[in-house]
Design brief:
The structure holds 3 protein chains of 3 kinds. By secondary structure, chain A is an all-alpha fold. Chain A is built from 7 helices and no strands. By secondary structure, chain B is an all-alpha fold. Chain B is built from 22 helices and 2 strands. The longest helix of chain B has about 45 residues. The radius of gyration of chain B is 30 Å and the shape is globular. By secondary structure, chain C is mostly helical. In chain C, helix 12 runs parallel beside helix 15, helix 12 packs antiparallel against helix 16 and helix 15 packs antiparallel against helix 16. Classes of the chains: A mainly alpha, B mainly alpha, C mainly alpha. Chains in contact: A-B, A-C, B-C. At the A-C interface, helix 3 and helix 7 of A face helix 1, helix 4, helix 5, helix 6 and helix 8 of C.
Chain lengths: ~170, ~600, ~475
């Protein structure tokens, strides 16, 4: 139990660290890589919670495909000069300075309101086999995922062709 | 007697107007046609004079029937109108010879005769109204013929007369509703509050047409702006005849106005005020025509005063004065026309000593001026005496007003005559010659009629005028000896005052100056000269102020819609546009803020 | 039968990508056009009540958990129209054969996605297909292959992923409460615990996610860039149906048929709608780029739809659906005109244009119809839907918001007339003497849409009778 908790905490810390890196880094490429890393860590979390199918999806689509799209898009953009990067950093800080205040305000409002959280929760459908659920319960979602994949493929085709032409 | 002959006084001027309209470009031919047809009209009306007849044409429904009625009174008016029409047409032959608008003037003149004849003859209220309103149009068009700026005066006249005609229209409607008939000769109403209102509305229309105060203010303006024959024709004779005719019909036939009734007192007050106000204004005028115009107003006061007494003698005096006034006022305007044409000005300061150059005109002027001032034995004297007697019977104050009016009338005519025909002849008027015969002839005819009516006043009153009043009970026509004495005394005072002041001031023009330079009167006169007492001017000022305020409101709304709204839209639009700085971080911040707001809203509302 | 709306475009894409060689390249456009024409015909017939799609039997293999009602049919009809026009536009505007093939395939995938959005009855499936449509949109926006397009796509991706986060969070909360994701289950659970903070928060989060997708102010940051930078056929299908299907249709569906309209939902709709209308119009008023003007106008018009929803009555729903249709038609029409302008003049700045009615009469005329319809001038169809929205607001007692709607339509008129005057009226601008009318694909589809606007406006009462259910 203790070891599990330690691993969980480490993974969550890694998640937060990767997320922070993604947000705060100056380079877009690095940011995209950090995003992929975040997704990978998230995959680990999902594995640990026995959601292996979700983990696979997270790894393939988010960490893989989306990152590829991101990186190929970013590689087409002009890099900024260091001064500009610095300016944008400051800019971003100024823009999000209100966020902590907002969070405090929202939290305070929620605490004031005595929101009721005690709901009659139905038992989670844990015992169902994931394959069963996927194929007989969520077949439509599968179709949607396939559509997403195919469009991703088209996107990669288009953008890589663009890159090839550029180079 | 049902006679189609009654159509002639209407059809002859109408036909003449149509013909002249066709040939209006040839002014001589147009004048000749007008002269012939007015002569024809005069002949027909003289033929009809003193007869009684009906003519019933078709009916258009809604109480509009074509009924004409001729009887003693309106046959007299018809004849008078025809007489003046003929004389003016004769006078115009030369006066308008070089004027470009001559043809059109004849058209409007004939159309006016058509309207007046129709109005006088018609025995149906609606028909009457039709002809009456037709006169409004010819009034406008005739004034507008004059100088370039005459249209302003024309509009003024149109609005003043038009508004009072609206009152008349309302009065006619009310009368017809109360009486239950639109046939004029069948309406005899007692004075109840409702019919009293109708009566007052009708009286407003009638006295406005005859040019009484406070509806008179366009007349002096028209005297300057409009063609001169118009002045001699419309305000001096035709409109007086028609207005006073209708006033008498109102007070005598349609409504039972008795002495000491409120309407009677009202009428007398209007008359007295008109006499005084207009004659005072006449006193300070420095223009021949403008001075006469104020007298044209002032004289109406005597008629209204006489008729307002509701005594037989007063009404008789009013009618007699109406005829006399038409005569001598037309004559005076014709002399003004002659002077204007021959001496090329009507400014009193630049005239003088014309008695040698224009002796006939001078004589005619003297006769008619004596008549208007009420010098015995001219006709004005006798009609005024009748009015005096009636006024005295109703109240000393009215008599006093009438006599005061007489005094000022005499003073202003002394001044006028002195300034135009006596004194020194200015250098630039040396070449002035006597007017041509066709202009002199109407003046001579009128002047001699003044004398004839004066000398034969007894028979004129008894044979021509007395039958109008069915009562016929007229005690005397010469006036009390006492009243005559007072009148004569007033005239003598006027002459003495004039002679003395002329000597002091060194000229006829300023002989009456001591009156209008008196302390309080001077202020009043100054205000009057600045038109503070002109209802048209006052209302126009008020309207202009209102229009200015409305304009301001409009500008404000305009500023609001074109400036403020557009400005706010533009500024807020550019603020919004600036806010879209293209940085996705900004947009993320907006989304976060928006989401927070919505979630808070949901949780608090739930 | 209903599932064919999703399967047929999807299978068409698969079939076209088999190794047919050059044949598929040439046929793709016509296959797509045939598909959209067929869908338009079928859905129009269904809307008129001539056929009942649910009654046609199909093999159980193709039976998904789908449902069809009038609202869905309206969306199906709109998407068929808009995608058909976009395909037609791609013939002159996407010149290269290979590129056009990819473009057609992506459009067909998007069509499948929007159709699925129209038909699904499950919150999670809805989310999946929203994402599918969005991802196709990302790729289509960056299709233009330049800096601006990537920037626009990037903004869309960033904000869209925020929407994704919000929606997934909301769905997980709903699953927590309902134990299922089907519309019926969620509706029952929401109705049972209406005032629980978790449920309310979940609803709020989901609606915010959809506000982002629909581009309502202040969630709209991505929209002007995305619409402006994309190729014109892409702008047409994004503005006409793409974002409306995933953002606005879904709002209507969820608010009316799943969550239910209560005071809070209504209030949120009214506030966001009114703000979008006014701020969108004001922003549109100050644009010089005509595509950007149309983009802001889109925000403002979507605000009208949401305002109609906020009335919370049956009439409000009908008005919103009607305005949804009208907006799809006239915004598509205006973007088609924008495409014609950009193709022929190569300019996007309204200050450099002017007097083009003389050179491009068909474009000028159809644009006038579209602009007047957007401004709500009778008897064009846009007038009726705005009128219904205002009547619904008054009927529900929201007089202030009705006033805002009325006054803002003046602003709409102002910027639409600015568009029309600056581009088409007045003297011909310098350098535009040799401009010619756009090709038959563009002007023909513009005329078709203009005729639809006029016809619907005139035949409105009939349409209203059909729409009230």
């Amino acid at each position: 139990m203790q070891a599990n908790l330690v691993i969980n905490v480490i993974i969550l810390m890694a998640l937060i660290g990767a997320g922070l890196w993604a947000i705060m880094t100056r380079s877009l490429i690095r940011s995209a890589i950090a995003l992929a890393l975040t997704s990978s860590v998230l995959t680990m979390v999902m594995f640990r919670f026995n959601s292996w199918l979700a983990a696979v999806f997270e790894l393939s689509v988010c960490a893989g495909l989306i990152s590829v799209v991101f990186i190929s898009t970013i590689s087409l953009t002009e890099p900024l000069s260091p001064q500009e990067v610095l300016k944008h950093m400051r800019d971003r800080l100024a823009r999000f300075a209100f966020l902590p205040i907002l969070i405090l305000v929202v939290g305070f409002a929620l605490s004031l309101l005595k929101v009721s959280y005690n709901l009659p929760l139905p038992p989670a459908a844990l015992e169902q086999d994931a394959r069963n659920v996927l194929w007989y319960g969520r077949e439509l979602d599968l179709l949607g995922q396939v559509i997403i994949l195919i469009s991703g493929v088209f996107g990669v085709i288009i953008l890589f062709r663009q890159m090839r032409r550029r180079s | 007697m049902n006679s189609t002959l009654l159509l002639l006084p209407i059809l002859i001027p109408l036909a003449a107007a149509v013909i002249v309209l066709g040939i209006r470009r040839f002014s001589t031919a147009a004048g000749a046609v007008a002269l012939i047809f007015t002569a024809l009209n005069l002949a027909v009306t003289l033929r009809l004079f003193g007869q009684e007849a009906y003519f019933t044409g078709g009916s258009a429904g809604f109480g509009i029937d074509f009924i004409l009625r001729l009887y003693h009174f309106n046959s007299l008016i018809l004849a008078a109108v025809a007489f003046f029409g003929f004389l003016i047409a004769l006078y115009c032959q030369r006066f308008l010879k070089e004027k470009a608008y001559a043809g059109r003037f004849y058209v409007y003149m004939l159309a006016s005769i058509f309207c007046v004849n129709g109005a006088v003859l018609s025995d149906n209220l609606i028909l009457f109204l039709f002809f009456w309103e037709g006169l409004l149009i010819t009034l406008y068009t005739m004034i507008a013929l004059g100088r370039a700026e005459a249209y302003k005066t024309a509009i003024k006249a149109f609005i003043i007369v038009g508004v009072s005609d609206l009152c008349l229209m309302a009065g006619l409607g009310l009368t017809a509703a109360i009486a239950g008939t639109t046939t004029l000769s069948q309406i005899h109403l007692a004075l109840t509050p409702a019919s009293c209102a109708a009566c007052i509305l009708l009286i407003i229309g009638a006295i406005a047409k005859s040019g009484s105060a406070p509806f008179h203010t366009w007349i002096p303006d028209a005297a300057v702006d409009a063609p001169l024959p118009f002045m001699a024709f419309m305000p001096a004779s035709l409109e007086k005849l028609l207005g006073i005719y209708f006033l008498i019909r109102i007070t005598l036939d349609m409504f039972a106005v008795v002495p000491h009734s409120s309407i009677s007192t009202l009428l007398m007050s209007v008359g007295a005020v008109t006499i005084i106000v207009a004659v005072m204004m006449a006193l300070i005028q420095k223009d021949y025509k403008r001075l006469l115009a104020y007298h044209a107003v002032s004289q109406v006061g005597y008629m209204v005063l006489g008729i307002g007494t509701a005594l037989p003698i007063g009404i008789l005096g009013g009618i007699f004065h109406m005829l006399n006034n038409s005569l001598y006022k037309a004559g005076l305007f014709l002399t003004a026309g002659a002077v204007e044409r021959q001496a090329a000005t009507t400014d009193l300061a630049r005239l003088g000593g014309l008695r040698r150059n224009m002796p006939v005109t001078c004589v005619c002027f003297l006769v008619t001026a004596c008549a208007i001032s009420g010098v015995p034995p001219f006709n004005g004297f006798f009609s005024k005496e009748l009015v005096y007697a009636a006024a005295l019977e109703r109240g000393r104050i009215f008599y006093l007003a009438a006599v005061t009016g007489s005094l000022f009338t005499a003073l202003s005519f002394l001044k006028l005559g002195h300034a135009v025909f006596f004194g020194a002849l200015p250098q630039e008027r040396q070449a002035a010659k006597e007017a041509p015969a066709s202009m002199l002839l109407p003046m001579i005819v009128i002047a001699s009629l003044c004398v004839v009516l004066g000398l034969g006043n007894k028979s004129a009153v008894e044979q021509i005028l007395a039958p109008i009043l069915s009562a016929g009970a007229v005690g005397h026509s010469g006036g009390h000896g006492m009243l005559v004495l007072i009148t004569v005394a007033v005239l003598v005072i006027a002459v003495l005052s004039h002679l003395r002041q002329a000597k002091i001031q060194g000229g006829g023009l300023k002989a009456a100056a001591y009156i209008y330079q008196a302390p309080i009167l001077a202020t009043i006169f100054r205000w009057a000269q600045r038109r503070f007492f002109d209802p048209y001017y006052v209302v126009a000022k008020i309207l202009r102020a209102g229009a200015w305020i409305l304009y301001g409101c409009d500008r404000l709304v305009n500023w609001f819609s074109d400036g403020a709204v557009v400005g706010v839209a533009r500024i807020s639009g550019s603020v919004i546009r600036k806010a879209h700085d293209g940085n996705y971080a900004t947009y993320v911040a907006w989304v976060l803020a928006g989401t927070a707001l919505v979630v808070i809203l949901f949780i608090t509302r739930g | 039968m209903v599932s064919f709306f999703i399967l047929v475009p999807f299978l068409c894409v698969l079939l076209l990508n088999l190794p047919w060689g050059n044949l598929a390249r040439r046929l793709a456009l016509w296959v797509g056009l045939g598909l959209t024409a067929g869908q338009a015909a079928v859905s129009a017939c269904a809307l008129a009540g001539w056929i009942d799609l649910r009654a046609i039997p199909v093999s159980p293999f193709f039976k998904y958990d789908l449902a069809l009602d009038t609202l869905s049919i309206v969306l199906l009809l709109c998407s068929a129209l808009v995608f058909g026009v976009a395909l037609l536009l791609s013939r002159p505007l996407v010149s290269q054969g290979e590129q056009r093939f990819n473009f057609v395939c992506l459009l067909l995938l998007m069509l499948a996605g929007t159709n699925a959005v129209a038909l699904v009855r499950d919150v999670f499936s809805l989310y999946v297909f929203i994402e599918a449509v969005s991802i196709v949109s990302f790729i289509l926006i960056s299709f233009n292959k330049d800096q601006d397009a990537f920037e626009g796509a990037f903004k869309y991706i960033v904000l869209s992923s925020m929407a994704t986060v919000l929606m997934v969070l909301s769905i997980s909360l709903l699953v927590l409460v309902a134990g299922t994701t089907s519309f019926d289950g969620v509706r029952a659970a929401v109705a049972a615990s209406r005032h629980a903070g978790v449920v309310l928060g979940a609803i709020g989060l989901f609606l915010c996610g959809l506000f982002i997708k629909g581009g309502l102010m202040p969630f709209h940051g991505w929209l002007p860039d995305a619409y402006t930078c994309a190729l014109n056929p892409v702008s047409v299908c994004l503005a006409g149906i793409g974002t409306k299907a995933v953002g606005v249709y879904t709002l209507i569906r969820l608010a009316y048929f799943v969550f239910g309209i209560d005071a809070a939902v209504s209030q949120a709709f009214l506030l966001v709608g009114a703000f979008s209308i006014v701020a969108g119009s004001l922003a549109a008023l100050n644009q010089t780029d005509y595509k950007r003007l149309l983009a802001y106008s889109s925000i403002s018009q979507v605000g009208y739809i949401i305002l109609g929803l906020g009335a919370g009555t049956g009439l409000g729903l009908a008005a919103a659906a009607f305005h949804f249709f009208n907006h799809a038609v006239f915004k598509t029409l205006l973007f088609v005109n924008a495409g014609a302008l950009e193709q022929k003049t190569g300019l996007r700045d309204m200050r450099k244009l002017g007097g083009l009615s003389a050179r491009m009469p068909l474009t000028g005329f159809s644009s006038l119809i579209g602009a007047l319809s957007a401004a709500g001038v009778p008897p064009l169809s846009g007038f009726w839907s705005k009128l219904l929205i205002i009547i619904a607001l008054i009927g529900a007692g929201y007089h202030g918001y009705a006033l805002v709607a009325v006054l803002a339509s003046v602003l709409t008129l102002a910027y639409m007339l600015a568009w029309q005057r600056n581009i088409f009226f007045g003297p011909l601008a310098a350098g535009l003497e040799n401009i010619e009318e756009a090709g038959w694909e563009i002007s023909g589809s513009a005329l078709l849409l203009a005729v639809i606007l006029i016809g619907v406006g005139i035949a409105f009462p009939l349409y209203l009778c059909k729409l009230i259910w």
